[in-house]
Amino acid sequence: MPEETDPIRKDFCKKESLCKVARVGIRTLLIFVFVLALMLGMLAMAGGTSAPLRQGIEQYLTQAAQMHAKVGTLEGVTFFPDVSIHAEDITFVKTVGDENPAMVVERMDISLPFWSYIFGSRKMEEFIIEGVHAGEGVLTPHALTIDKTALELTGGAGLPESSWFIIRGKYDKRSIDLQIPVTSEKDGVRTLYRLPPPGSIGKALEEAGFSDLAGYLAVPIVP
Length: 223
Fold this sequence. Notes:
Largest sheet: 7 strands, antiparallel
Order of helices and strands: HHHEEEHEEEEEEEHH
């Protein structure tokens, strides 16, 4: 076998076992990249509005709310490149078969990048929940109505832009109108917002005179 003339390669491969380890490592890395790409491709095709997806969403909401959930209209679910859910007419009952729902959510639009969901960075492209009606003692001691809670960008057209997390509704006959400042950043052509930590929501409610409500809404919004 002719002697290796490349000094860099000769130094790197002076031991045959080292070369074998390098080859195995490269092959393992390539296999990992291939499997990851395959999995992400499958996730990208896994969304939709199928019955199994609807059942999965209902099971998740049931566990989260500790009430039986039913999704009236599932407009779409995606898993990659964004994790998203768009649904309407979500009802919750305490016991299966109850005709009168304990809570209703008229609309839910949530979308966040896949990697934000995986690493829990709280970056979201869209967060809108509208028409929440919860009876007395369901979520809070008194009846709670959330007309809209969302991430919004104000300004533009020459005015400075500001990002907000808003909560508008009514609790115990008192109107709620909160604006909590949040950070945002451009990701290509879209804007990503960072959800406020639960503590800031509770603090804003206390400052607005809703100390009795702060402990109930100061909870993580997404897992």
